[in-house]
Amino acid sequence: MASLRPSSVKLSPFSAITNSFTGFHRNWLSLRAEKLGRVDNAWLRLSPSLKEKSVLRLDAWIISAGHAQELKSFKIQNMSISDGRVDFYDKMKQRFLSFKKHKYMGEVEHFKTLAEVQSPKFMVIACVDSRVCPSNILGFQPGEAFMVRNVANLVPPLENGPTETNAAVEFAVKTLQVQNIFVIGHSCCAGIQMLMTMQDDENPSLIEKWVGNAKVAKLRTKEDANHLSFDQQCKHCEKESINCSLLNLLTYPWIEERVRKGTLSLLGGYYDFLSCTFEIWTLDFKESNAVSHGSKLSVKDRVFWC
């Protein structure tokens, strides 16, 4: 009987979840022990094989009788979740059909051309944050911008090796021949907040390793804005990290060459969704080409939209 005691069973942190999904209450072992406590002393006189069979039958009785209501509640709850998912899928369906009717069918020839070839003028590097979709904010239309999104809209330097981001940049520059690379940051960026608070760790998380690409922006923020509040420091770092990414782009020879010739422009943008304002600027290559010496970025044509 010792093997039936609840204390002898080690449950994982996910036991409450998995047991619920299989129809078992997470305290079913306790319930079983409670039921078994009511068994007649004749139990002790049963042979081991009969005891095992009896326990299995008793378990089945407890589950069927004691958990019927719980299973019913689970089914109702699961049905509610499914209904919500269906409602959202239905919304997506309606949005797609609206796009097809009003956008696609109205510009069929344009979309047929796009099916054959794309010639975007912009390469956009933006954050994965769900609140800052560049196509919604800046109105990019299909075929206008080749886009990659990552945590905190970062561009690692060439020396850091291959990533999804620089692979996309290489394709945009070498194959699509884009004329502009546009790095867009935003307010209240969780990636930058993590960068500003994280400590050196022997076992950093994947996110910590990634935002570490902007460590220079953090150091410059601590130098320039250490007297400000934490929120203000984060906002300063959000903009500084954009400039660091623009400088990192110059570490790629095929980008630096095109910027030097004037066939490629590097732009920074900052969207503040708290005030719904947008700031945009262009890298001044003549003043910033000492990147190898760690100089700060020089910009020109700074514009503020509000």
Automatic annotation (TrEMBL):
Keyword Hydrolase belongs to the record: no
InterPro entries, per the entry: Beta_CA_cladeB, Carbonic_anhydrase, Carbonic_anhydrase_sf
Catalytic activity entry: hydrogencarbonate + H(+) = CO2 + H2O
Superkingdom classification of source: Eukaryota
Family affiliation: Belongs to the beta-class carbonic anhydrase family.
PANTHER family named in the record: BETA CARBONIC ANHYDRASE 6, MITOCHONDRIAL, CARBONIC ANHYDRASE
Function: Reversible hydration of carbon dioxide.
Protein name: Carbonic anhydrase
